Amino acid sequence: MHHHRSNLTPTCLPMDNPGLRESVLRRSVGRRTHELIRVGESRSGVGICGARNFRCNCNALPSQIRPNEQMRGHEDDDIMICILIGICPPSPDLWEILTKRVHQTIRNDQDDDGGDDDGCQQECFTIQWISHSIVTDDGDGKSTPTQIVTAISDAPVDAVVAATTNGLGDTPYICELWASAPAILPLMPLGGYSKHIIYDPSIQHDLKNWEDWARPTLRKWGLFFQKSILNTTEVNELRSIVESEIESMEESLKAHRPEISIGKDTFHFREVASRGNERFDLRLLSSDAIDFVKKTIMMGRVSTVLESILHSISEKDVDFDLSVVYSKPGAPNQGWHCDGDHLKGSTDAGWDVDGWKTKLADPYALCLFIPLIDLNDTTGYTQFWPASHRNRDLMGFGPVAEITEATWDGKCTAGDAIWYDYRLFHRGIANTSNLLRPVVQIVFKKSWYVERANYGTIGVTEVERS
What distances in angstroms separate CA 410 from CA 19, 168, 192, 381, one per listed residue? Predict the structure, then answer.
């Protein structure tokens, strides 16, 4: 994954592709040795790699972190980092022990002349504990319950692991570095996500409207779930429209772009795009599709939510893009991504644990997913990393969400709705069924925002100019 300031420095073999490097190295962490098999770099210059036993050492190279992002919320010049540690066996008292005993670590540095102890200088680093969770570690071939904890510190990564081990005293704990990152790594809260992102009137009974619950939920977690935004009749009507447009577009591709192997090749046209692997994104431009959204979904069902989150429902302030994201049988797992970046110049949550409340910029776009078939383990679904919208420097760290079991699986029934912040990390799961998996995507956005990344500028039937 990444380098860091400690003495655990991997040797990398740069490749021609500047966005991806490969290396094989061994690193001793705690009591185990891991063979890291891949090192890559994200758009922010911070990489990601996987370990053969599913350990991630995402160690940030300080020089790669953008200067204006290094110390967001801190006054000194040291670089903060988030450290993820696995502790085995788990204990109900472990979190309390750490938060009470371990607050700092001290590093002894010899003077420049390499003198004796008299020339040794001490440097003190603070450690702030953030969150903890319980996961099942399958890294050694056994299902071992492990407690994972996160902390932020300006100390070297290995120093924090050592301080954690020392702080636990003589108890038989094994502490192991799982990952480090240039941003707080969100973990699943104890008890799971359901009570936080699924609206339950029996729990939120003190709220007059569910919209009053939706806005703070989206701000904190980056998504929320709404049951049955469409009934069965409406789902069937919309699916008929969508299937007709899919058939029409693929016939047009065959007629005007015979060189393209649909489902295998990557292409980006103004109306439709595909990154291969049987996954497609088709704009729904027919009057039937647009009228359905305006009359059935916009009128009364989502307008108050949109006004609460985007602060307006006026057509001059907010508009929408309509498309169907569909996966054919055989589509594999998708890579982790977000649909839109944090805007240049906007603020994210930074290193403040509660920064999502006060610092995080409001969303400029909100995505509404409506599946037109039931989504399950066979058809596949969309997997989300809740709270990953809070920080721009989480790009490339999706695999950490997997090994920490911090994901939420969007398994639901046709006609249900999943709303998410455009900046939230997610990925499509493999379609192992024999069914087409169509999901209508409505992107409600500020009218000044124009989506340019996902589509091309040339139409399917247009002749490209040389």
Answer: 30, 38, 14, 6
Burial 85-124 (b: 16+ CB within 10 A, else e): bbbbebeeebbeebbeebeebeeeeeeeeeeeeeeeeeee
Q: pLDDT tier at 51 (50, 70, 90 boundaries)?
A: very low
Residue 97 has pLDDT above 80, yes or no: yes
- If you average pLDDT over every residue of the chain, what do you get? 80
In the numeric block, the tokens 């903060």 are attached to: 80
Rounded to an integer, the average pLDDT of 141-149 is 85
Distance between CA atoms of residues 221 and 424, nearest Å:
9
Question: For the residues 304-314, what does the mean pLDDT come to?
Answer: 86
Are 409 and 381 contacting, i.e. CB atoms less than 8 angstroms apart? yes
91 backbone dihedrals φ, ψ, rounded to 5°: -150, 140
Residue 237 has phi, psi (to 5 degrees) of -65, -45
- CA torsion sign for 148, 380, 393, 4 is positive
Position 338 confidence tier, pLDDT thresholds 50, 70, 90: very high
Distance CA 186, CA 348 (A): 14
**In terms of DSSP bridges, do strands 144-153 and 121-137 run parallel, antiparallel, or are they unpaired?**
antiparallel
Mean pLDDT over residues 346-375, rounded?
A: 96
Q: Name the packing angle between helices 94-101 and 157-167 (round to 10°).
A: 110
Tokens of 251: 């016939």
Note the maximum CA span of the chain.
81
pTM above the 0.70 mark?
Answer: yes
Q: Is residue 93's pLDDT more than 70?
A: yes
Q: Can you spell out the DSSP letters for 6-48?
A: SS-----B--S-TTEEB--EEEEETTEEEEE--EEE-TTS-EE
- Give pLDDT, residue 78: 55
Q: What tokens does 171 get?
A: 């108890």
Residue 255 phi, psi dihedral angles, 5° rounding:
-75, -40
In contact, 49 and 40? CB cutoff 8 Å: yes
CA distance 179 to 135: 15
- Signed CA dihedral, 403, 408, 411, 414: sign only: negative
Q: The tokens of 434 are what?
A: 């024999």
Helices (H), 369-425: 398-403
The predicted pLDDT at position 143 comes to 77
Using an 8 Å Cβ cutoff, are 6 and 79 in contact?
no
**CB neighbour burial string for 327-340, b if at least 16 within 10 angstroms, e if fewer:** bbbebeebebebbb
pLDDT at 2 over 80: no
Residue 284 CA to residue 441 CA, distance in Å, equals 10
Find the mean pLDDT for residues 190-214. Answer: 79
According to the model, what pLDDT value does residue 200 have?
Answer: 73
